[in-house]
Amino acid sequence: MNKQAKKALLFLLSIVMFFKRVLVGFFYLVGKGFSRVNGTYEKTIGPTLYQWFYTLQKQVRWMSMLKTSGMLGFFGRRSVLQIVLFLTLCIIMVPQTKLYTAERATQPGQNTLLYRLVGPGEQDFSLDELTVEQAVPVFEETDRNWRDGAISADQQNSANQLPPELDDIAAISVGGTAVTKPTILPGNQLPIQQESAASQSANRKSVIEYMVDSGDTIGVIAEAFHISQATILWANDLTARSYIRPGDTLKILPTDGLIHTVARGDTVSSLANTYDTESSKIIAFNNLQKDGSDIIIGENLIIPDGTKPVPKSTYTVPDSRPYTPLTNVAAPPPSISAPAGSGYLWPLGAHVITQYYGFQHTGLDISGGGTGTPIYAARGGTVKTSQCGYNGGYGCYVILDHGDGVNTLYGHASQLYVSAGETVTQGQTIAAMGNTGRSTGPHLHFEVRVNGVRTNPLKYIRY
Question: Which residues belong to any copy of the LysM domain (predicted)?
Answer without folding.
Answer: 208-252, 258-303
